[in-house]
Design a protein that fits this description.
Length: about 350
């Protein structure tokens, strides 16, 4: 495994071992495996040295339940490298990190800005902030760790040349644009319909307006106040009606699965979905937006039926049809333009077709 350690070190210039807690969870093909450094030091070290995600907290630290919500991790080293490179961090820069987590990325940011630059990292979880502060201090890395809501940024250190965000975002806070008016804001961004799947977004800011194109798919823990939330109970209803929808079964599936959910979600702000059933049987697409619900029952050989809010069904069908009729364009053809109080999605080019969206 020495080879793997060399690989991660060579890739990022720093070993992540000093930043990891004694207990981590490694994701494997059969689920998460709990590794305790005191019990299995070799397996723990292999994981620390590997190019893999290591979960370090569940349910905001309330459980160790791997069926629960992972709420902190040491991110995938190769992805960290990709995001840092795309953020174009240079010596002497002033950088704001959102989501300190283990403190490892903060140390890498400091490596890049050098003695002449500075890094402030904001972490919402008091316990994690304290641990990261201690680890950075022990490693001799000069980073200012602040406990707070990163969605407010950190005004005391502004302006920043770069903002580097390591939690998933759905609504870009105006504070980041004010605090980094001319620079780069790097973040994982997703639509509500795309669920856990986010896209890398490097917003280049000029005079407080950020413009960027969606990049590769990533999965990041969501910012605390922007989590998608529990799906909850579905209201009972018996108003199912059979309808003719201008969508085939395969088209409905594609519109919410893989990258379809991300792109169709660009036209359906605040809308979440679930797809159930499968195989030979009927499938159901469940939709929810602003407290209203709708569902579509469909499947090869089944009559299509709908139930619930007619406006939500109409908006979903319109958004899905728009995407299908354009030949299912991929996320890389879209981007965001964000200014104070306004967020626009653009298609193909920032000055091309665009629409305002409120998330
Ligand atoms: C994927 S982890 C960050 C990984 C980290 N950069 C590292 O190197 O270990 C996401 C972190 O974002 C934090 N977080 C979530 N919402 C936040 C918010 N509103 N403000 C600041 N931090 C937040 C979580 O507590 C968690 O520690």
């Amino acid at each position: 495994m020495t080879g793997e350690l060399d690989l991660v070190r060579e890739m990022l210039g720093r070993d992540r071992t000093p930043f990891l807690p004694d207990v981590v969870w490694r994701s494997t093909a059969v689920g998460y495996v709990r590794l305790d450094r005191q019990v299995e030091p070799a397996a723990w070290q292999d994981a620390a040295d590997a190019d893999c995600v290591l979960v370090t907290q569940w349910d905001d630290g309330e459980t160790e339940d791997t069926e629960g919500l992972p709420t902190c991790s040491a991110s995938l080293p190769s992805l960290v490298e990709q995001m840092l490179d795309a953020t174009d961090i240079r010596e002497g820069h002033s950088v704001l990190e959102i989501g300190t987590g283990t403190g490892y990325t903060a140390a890498l940011l400091k490596d890049r800005v050098g003695d002449g630059g500075c890094v402030v990292s904001v972490e919402v979880d008091a316990g994690l902030a304290e641990l990261a502060r201690g680890r950075l201090r022990d490693a001799g890395v000069d980073v200012d760790v602040v406990r707070g809501d990163g969605l407010l940024g950190w005004g005391a250190g502004a302006p920043y040349d770069r903002v580097h965000v390591t939690c998933g975002i759905r609504r870009i806070p105006a504070a980041w644009l004010r605090q980094c008016p001319d620079g780069v804001i790097m973040l994982p961004w997703g639509t509500s319909l795309s669920g856990e799947r986010d896209r890398i977004l490097a917003l280049r800011t000029k005079n407080g307006v950020g413009v960027g194109r969606f990049g590769d798919e990533v999965g990041f823990m969501k910012a605390r106040s922007q989590r998608i939330g529990e799906w909850g109970d579905w209201p009972d209803g018996d108003d199912t009606v059979e309808v003719e929808l201008p969508l085939r079964a395969e088209e409905i599936e594609a519109s919410v699965e893989a990258y379809g959910g991300f792109v169709v979600g660009l036209q359906l702000p605040r809308t979440t979905c679930r797809l159930t059933g499968g195989g030979e049987g009927e499938r159901v697409l469940w939709l929810r937006r602003d407290g209203v619900h709708a569902s579509i029952g469909f499947g090869e050989g089944h009559r299509t039926s709908v139930e619930g809010d007619a406006g939500l069904i109409r908006d979903y069908v319109g958004a899905a049809r728009w995407w299908l009729d354009r030949g299912r364009p991929e996320p890389g053809r879209f981007g965001l333009a964000v200014g104070e109080g306004e967020q626009r999605v653009w298609f193909d080019a920032p000055d091309g077709e665009s629409w305002k969206v409120s998330w």
